Amino acid sequence: MSLIIRDGELIVRAPHFVSERQINAFVESKRAWIEKKLSEHRPMGFVLDQKFMRLFGEMMRVEVVEANTFYVSVETSIEIGRPPTMTDTRFVELVELHFKTELEKILAHRVPYFAAQLHLKTPEYKVRRYKRLYGRCTKDHRLAFNTYLFHDSLEFIDYVILHECAHILEFNHSPEFYSIVTGVMPDYKSVIAANKS
């Protein structure tokens, strides 16, 4: 039997011959691990009725207020104006579009910077939604970054940019690849660790 936590949900795998009682006992024996992993889950994107959201590495209070027009204001908290006639779907779409645009502004400066650090021409890139990827590089050197990087710290975003640019030089995760990354960001492992905490 095995347990997987994916996207904040518990998945239990067991052979067909295992009884429900045995499965329940197994799950119960792993309760502490399950609760720990579920508490670490961070929802991706903007979730209606959430009280806090991680924005560029900072946990911030979210306040939705009734307003004539949609707006987002970020200071010590995130204030979002919502017209009373706006549907939930449209509201979430506009909030995520706002933060995607903020991420794109960062990428517009940081992708050329890290490409130059590696003596590369600035690669083409897109911003799109992924469930489990932070970024990707194709064999023809086109990059893509996850929209939901807007949750992550600027240091981690820099690491993801560097990581994907380094794939233009080494299209693998070999020691040579990590030597390229380390040459530009010697503390990249601590940046990754800090992002997980």
- Number of separate helices: 6
Separation of the first and last Cα atoms: 29 Å
Task: Tally the beta strands.
Answer: 9
Please tell me what the overall shape is.
flat
Q: What is the mean predicted local confidence, pLDDT?
A: 92
Pairing-aware structural class of the strands and helices?
Answer: alpha/beta
What is the H/E order?
EEHHEEEEHEEEHHH
Strand order of the largest sheet: 3-4-6-5
Q: In percent, how helical is the residue content?
A: 40-55%
Main β-sheet description = 4 strands, mixed
Question: Hey, roughly how much beta strand do the residues contain?
Answer: 15-25%
Low-confidence stretches: none
Radius of gyration: 20 Å
Describe the structure.
By secondary structure, the chain is an alpha/beta fold. 43% of the residues lie in helices and 22% in strands. The strands form three sheets. It has a four-stranded mixed sheet, with helices on one face. The chain has a three-stranded mixed sheet with strand order 7-9-8, with helices on one face. Strand 3 and strand 4 form a beta hairpin. Helix 3 packs across helix 4 and helix 4 crosses helix 5. The protein is flat and about 60 Å long. The chain starts with a strand and ends with a helix. The model has no long low-confidence stretch (mean pLDDT 92).
